[in-house]
Design a protein that fits this description.
Rossmann fold; globular; alpha/beta; 7-stranded mixed β-sheet; 7 strands; binds S-adenosylmethionine
Length: 193
């Protein structure tokens, strides 16, 4: 795992931060997850952590082919590849396919394009089983989501989307959501019915 971390750092690939990773593993372990869905594989760091935290299967989505190939290599090195289904494609497209196939998951880790969370959400809810856990990373986006100041242009639309997504989570009576101000911020939602 340390080597994957180093590889990510050297190639400027963002991976889940340390305290968030600990919590992610804790929630996955407590849930005894059997069917995990991850949006944003990168090179397989968080996916490997999740697999090591339970005995479930991981379905994971990454649009960048180079990263996806690295992820396969890393899963293989860790002897985890047999428990992985990796889709190399746009997440929204794959999510729609999984939904139409009637797939369901008891643990979802959302860590793809931050500006897309809100668009993925209705599908993710359909994919999530009752009592299933939805863990969303980077909900504070470098502190910008809570900032009252002017948002730099390159982050503006992402921040706006995340703010709307947070409101959606708060208002959703079918989900019980807790927001954590740890690292870059994350939320953990449980589907109530
Ligand atoms: C923060 S990284 C994932 C890190 C990984 N979860 C970890 O902690 O090891 C986000 C990943 O999502 C991928 N991504 C971004 N937009 C995507 C999309 N529309 N469809 C699929 N993957 C996407 C990026 O290529 C990137 O590798």
């Amino acid at each position: 795992m340390e080597e994957i971390k180093k590889e990510a750092r050297q190639n400027y690939i963002p991976i889940v931060r340390e305290e968030t990773a600990k919590k992610l593993c804790e929630f996955c372990r407590d849930k005894k997850a059997k069917r995990i869905l991850e949006i944003g594989t990168a090179i397989g760091y968080s996916g490997s952590l999740l697999l090591k935290s339970c005995d479930g299967h991981l379905t994971t989505i990454e649009k960048d082919e180079t990263r996806a190939n690295k992820a396969i290599e890393n899963f293989r090195r860790l002897n985890l590849l047999g428990r992985v289904t990796l889709y190399v494609d746009d997440a929204l497209k794959v999510l729609k396919e999984l939904e139409s196939q009637g797939q369901t998951y008891d643990f979802i880790f959302l860590d793809g394009a931050k500006g897309q969370y809100k668009n993925y959400y209705p599908i993710l809810k359909n994919l999530l089983e009752k009592d299933g856990v939805l863990f969303c990373d980077n909900m504070n986006l470098l502190g910008l989501v809570k900032s009252e100041g002017k948002i730099p242009h390159k982050h503006r639309s992402m921040v706006e989307h995340l703010r709307q997504f947070i409101e959606t989570l708060k208002e959703d009576k079918n989900m019980s959501t807790t927001f954590y101000d740890i690292d870059d911020g994350f939320s953990v939602s449980v589907k109530l019915n």
